[in-house]
Amino acid sequence: MDEAGLVPGITGLGIHVPERVLTNYDLERMVDTSDAWIMERTGIRERRLAAPDECTSDLAVKAARKALDAAGLPAAAVELIIVATATPDMLFPATACLVQDRLGARQAAAFDLEAGCSGFIYGLAVGAQFIRAGAYKNVLVIGADTLSKVTNWKDRTTCVLFGDGAGAAVLQPVEPPRGMLSVYLRADGSGADLLKLPAGGSRLPASAETVRGDLHYLAMNGREIFKFAVRAMGEAAVEALRRAGIRQEEVDCFIPHQANIRIIDALAKRLSLPPDKVVVNVDRYGNTSAASIPLALYEAVSAGKVKPGESLVLAVAFGAGLTWGALVLRY
Ligand code: UT7
């Protein structure tokens, strides 16, 4: 295959969110908060919650089937499945293996990738390498999380922020000028304590004590994460653009991680990107972690904001780890 045939691009997208909607007014009845506070401080109006018997792989499989349909790719032809998630069905086996089985992707390798809310960008970056190397032609990257399952519904500082969802992308070799133009990934584990799920791993195995201490819930230092987010995503966006040889004003559509409208606004301002180029759906889904970028990208494509073969897309995310990253692609 010649050089041009090895450019990875997205050829199909699919999303799935659970049916149940939890509004700010519902939260007012659960913790000491208000619709006004949540709207002003986060921009979130409502979020979707998985049913008690619905888990990350359930959402992932539904999103993946839609992405495969959109790409016109049979599951049996998928060669690699990457599931980016911080809320796997179980610690092991990998959720990607459960998805592989349910899709009937009999030829596929499968593994999970844990990079918090940056997981989908990390996943696209990893999947793209297999295509560039000529190893695979059909890669499925899924970002799926059910943070509601590890949310402390008595903690108003976190429970208003998150929602559940999944988004999937089929990566295949595409013809230039389409395809991924650059990727930039970073991590800084010195900030690991700022956003974590303390117990249930090998550090603090599950015990009556860890349950009593609420250590199986997500814990976060919101203020520090906020500062990190604006700084890190700004840096990642600039570096990904530089590597792609694209000027800021050439970006047609900006897809930031959907965590907080104030973070998105600050970042767009820093990058001098006008509001009509910035995709926002945090109001309807909250922070869906690894599903955030594909949900927003899917909606931008569906709304005609991203035009196949034409639009230059800049996607940027940050998350637990700490991790952050950005990529530029011509959709
Ligand atoms: O993917 C990564 C995930 N994490 C994030 O994206 C988090 C980034 N951080 C943030 O989005 C913001 O820091 C928050 C939305 C979490 C908090 O907003 P803030 O403007 O940084 O508020 P704060 O933490 O400085 O708290 C201000 C006040 C506090 O009261 P006092 O101490 O001033 O009396 C909080 O107790 O707001 C209070 N507060 C609330 N009040 C009503 C915190 N949460 C709530 C709430 N409702 N839900």
Task: Report on this structure.
- With 331 residues, the chain is α/β, with parallel strands linked by helices.
- The protein has two domains: 3-175, Thiolase/Chalcone synthase (Peroxisomal Thiolase, Chain A, domain 1, 3-Layer(aba) Sandwich), CATH 3.40.47.10; 181-330, Peroxisomal Thiolase, Chain A, domain 1.
- It is 33% helix and 24% strand.
- The chain has eleven helices and 13 strands.
- The protein has helices at residues 24-28, 35-42, 56-71, 95-103, 119-132, 156-159, 208-212, 222-244, 261-270, 282-285, 292-302, and strands at 7-16, 20-23, 46-49, 80-84, 109-113, 139-146, 164-174, 179-187, 195-196, 219-220, 253-256, 312-319, 323-330.
- Strands 1-7-6-4-5 form a five-stranded mixed sheet, sandwiched between helices. A four-stranded mixed sheet has the order 8-13-12-11, sandwiched between helices.
- Helix 4 links the parallel strand 4 (80-84) and strand 5 (109-113).
- The protein is globular, with a radius of gyration of 19 Å.
- The model has no long low-confidence stretch (mean pLDDT 97).
